[in-house]
Design goal:
The protein has one domain: Jelly Rolls (Sandwich). Helices cover about 5% and strands about 45% of the residues. The chain is built from one helix and eight strands; from the N terminus they run αββββββββ. Strands 1, 2, 3, 4, 5, 6, 7 and 8 form an eight-stranded antiparallel beta sheet that branches. The protein starts with 12 loop residues before the first helix and ends in a 5-residue tail after the last strand.
Length: about 120
């Protein structure tokens, strides 16, 4: 895994992060964790979904953390709201608020910022 240092502030996420597919839901998606705070559990991850792959569950879902999403390329489609989101769009999903389900009909690179609350505060 690439480690940021004082001498190395920027990396190429496509070639320098470890992309995982095992355990990533749904099948067909891959993820790379670019930052993790081991004290709080908060993390930043990149997600790549091939065209036609769903993101997350098949029903609306809620997290026990705040999630902020930026669509880098491609796009997402919210099946429940019948709404398309293109590259450059930012999404905010506060903890406890149901959202989705989403799919990526044209594929998508997405970065997710997940702020985990200690003791669900």
């Amino acid at each position: 895994m690439t480690v940021w240092t004082k001498e190395r502030e920027f990396i190429d996420p496509i070639t320098e992060l470890e992309w995982e597919t095992e355990g990533v839901q749904p099948p067909g998606a891959s993820e790379a964790i670019s930052y993790r705070d081991n004290n709080t559990g908060s993390y930043i991850r990149l997600v790549y979904s091939k065209p036609g792959v769903g993101i997350g569950l098949k029903e609306p879902f809620a997290h026990d953390f705040d999630e902020f999403v930026y669509i880098i390329s491609g796009g997402l489609y919210n099946k429940r709201l019948n709404c398309r989101y293109e590259a450059g769009i930012i999404g905010k999903m506060p903890h406890g608020v149901a959202h989705g389900p989403l799919e990526a009909p044209v594929g998508a690179y997405v970065i997710e910022f997940r702020n985990v609350f200690k003791n669900n505060e």
